[in-house]
């Protein structure tokens, strides 16, 4: 088992940013600057082609950290961010660009490639959570959430299905083909986003994935608009979802 | 044209409640107790079998009034609250109870009866809005919203489709049969609630009604649960929806 090594630290506007590694996996941990106190942790999965510090990640982290006092961690998925691409990554990415240029459906390639990445990333997430819970400001007894859309959902659903420490999750915008079976194993509260006019994911596919979750508490948020037009206010909604389930349980370490 | 007559006034916990009539139609206007200032107005439609001061109405009004500084008005629908039932009302209600006791679908009766009530109620809402806008604290230049689920949607959709003064609306939980044609005329931002396990309204019917709106900005909130299990947090969401579209535009009269 690898422990967590901090490699850099900075802070701005009330948020401390600490880069870390767990073995070969690079990550970032954002925490409130107002003293490191024990608080709930939200793990976030970045989208395909992006990385752990993409503005969408940093923006959502700011809402959770400065707005609610939570800790937030993101790791780079294999082939993304600071991690090298394999020949397999290069082939799949080239295939995606080829399909896009030819006007062919991207779904089959994204579904296949993301499933491959999930097989690699799920054990990395588990090791990262093990290491994060050794930090005194996180610990093993606080609530842990997961928040990831697009590729963050393709990795998050198998991760959450096999990880009892996660007690609330926000997912969205993926196909049911590979994921529905794992979704049927998930019983924790979830919020799920889909776009009504998604040019890649048919409505029926998005609704089928939402339907698959076994959770008695599940909410679907559909918005008019295309794949990339998920409204900003859904990030606010996700933050409220975690706050509703985790409370504002910020307690002092001392 | 009837003007608005106030008939009673009380206040509690930061909210003034003023009963009124516009012609034969009884209503209630809730306003912030902290001085009557010009502020956005939200019209709310009550559910079938309920009335203008049902706890669901008063509770939502409190969120809008004390939380956001808005004015909120509700009127009794014909045959409801302080208004007499006609022989037609009695026949339809008896038919609904008979179907319910026999385990037959309620939908066809609710759809038919609510469409009848909407024909009566839409001109009453228009006259009520005319009269409310004569009050200095409301006026004709501020934003006006509409918020009604169930029967509040059956009346609200034809009202909003024919009423350009309404600029944002929250609807939900009804069938598309009668309403889809009017929904196609609606282009303002909407939020729409439906229950994923509704024992009366099939999923496909609820989704079809959401789909019918011509609005470029529309959000669907689906929650696991039966018809009457719409979560309380959807009222909070509706309030945020109006706040997002109307701002906190509370300006002094003076």
Automatic annotation (TrEMBL), chains A, B:
Organism, scientific name: Rugosimonospora acidiphila
Lineage: Bacteria, Bacillati, Actinomycetota, Actinomycetes, Micromonosporales
Domain of life (superkingdom): Bacteria
Protein name: Alpha/beta hydrolase
InterPro entries linked to this entry: AB_hydrolase_fold
């Amino acid at each position: 088992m690898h422990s967590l090594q901090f490699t850099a630290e900075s802070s701005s506007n009330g948020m401390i940013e600490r880069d870390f590694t767990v073995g070969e996996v690079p990550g970032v941990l954002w925490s409130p600057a107002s003293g490191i106190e024990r608080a709930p942790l939200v793990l976030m999965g970045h989208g395909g082609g992006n990385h752990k510090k993409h503005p969408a990640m940093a923006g959502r982290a700011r809402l959770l950290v400065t707005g609610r006092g939570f800790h937030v961690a993101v790791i780079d998925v294999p082939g993304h961010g600071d991690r090298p691409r394999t020949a397999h990554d290069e082939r799949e990415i080239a295939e995606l660009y080829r399909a896009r240029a030819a006007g062919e459906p991207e779904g089959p390639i994204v579904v296949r490639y993301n499933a491959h990445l999930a097989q690699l990333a799920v054990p990395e997430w588990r090791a990262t959570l093990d290491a994060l819970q050794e930090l005194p400001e996180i610990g093993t007894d606080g609530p842990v959430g997961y928040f990831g859309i697009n590729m963050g959902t393709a990795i998050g659903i198998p991760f959450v299905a096999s990880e009892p420490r996660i007690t609330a999750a926000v997912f969205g915008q993926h196909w049911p083909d590979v994921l529905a079976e794992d979704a049927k194993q998930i019983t924790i509260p979830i919020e799920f986003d889909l776009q009504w006019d998604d040019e890649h994911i048919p409505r029926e596919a998005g609704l089928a994935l939402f339907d698959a979750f076994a959770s008695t508490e599940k909410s679907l948020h559909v918005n008019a608009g295309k794949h990339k037009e998920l409204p900003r206010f859904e990030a606010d909604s996700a933050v409220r979802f975690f706050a509703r389930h985790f409370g504002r349980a910020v307690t002092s370490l001392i």
